Amino acid sequence: MRKHKYNQIVLSVSATVSPFIMLFGLYVIFHGHYSPGGGFQGGTMLAAALLLIRLAAGFDIAQLQFKRILGTPLGSIGVLIYFGTGFLAMISGGEFLNYGFLPFAGFTEDGLRSLGILMVEIGVGVAVMAILVAIYDDLLEGYLHD
Amino acid sequence: MGLPDRGDPDAVMFREKSPAGSFGASSYYIRNAYRDAETPNMVTVVLADYRGYDTLGEETVIMTAGLICFLLLRRQRTKRDDNKPRKASADAQT
After folding, report:
1. Residue B26 forms part of a structural domain
2. How far is the alpha carbon of B20 from chain A, nearest alpha carbon, in Å?
3. Which of A39, A86, A130, B13 could, after both became Cys, cross-link A75 (CB 3.0–4.6 A)?
4. Cβ distance of B37 and A110 shorter than 8 Å
């Protein structure tokens, strides 16, 4: 990879803004029950925060934040969280993705459905974030070792 | 004929019953979304609970896109590929 001298202003502004974007992404995911948003939008924001660091500080330094090999496995784990929520409801007596049958004690059926929606949104957020970063890394792959 | 006015409560898609006389799904969602899932945001309930299977498919599409990018764009790290560039440059010289 060619050695660039990265711009100090761009780097410090990105490093300042990126955690706030990340925090807002988490807010969008976890507040999806009450306001517009949800897993897809919040995951995209998390990916935008990671990609901002990747653009500003360079690929090699950004490896300290989110490793390149993590992308595809985390995307699969997100899908597995979603599928596992549905499957957990299925093996405890209900239909597939019927969150009312999730085996957690101390919840009413409405609360269980609310919890199931939250778990599903977290799975979607993780998958979208990881896959977007992974696509960026894959597109950069040939350029790295020139 | 033509499109109904914006926000017209008498338009066909906003009526409780369809022209054929069957109950629409939208009025069911509006009445029961909070009661079923204790979530004020109706859109979230429809996307993640009533139509959860559809969202699972969407997420699978995204994961498939990532996997295809990984498979198409990765560098193959095999022994044969390490020899490839040398061979190509030798061909270029001759």
Report:
1. yes
2. 30
3. A130
4. yes
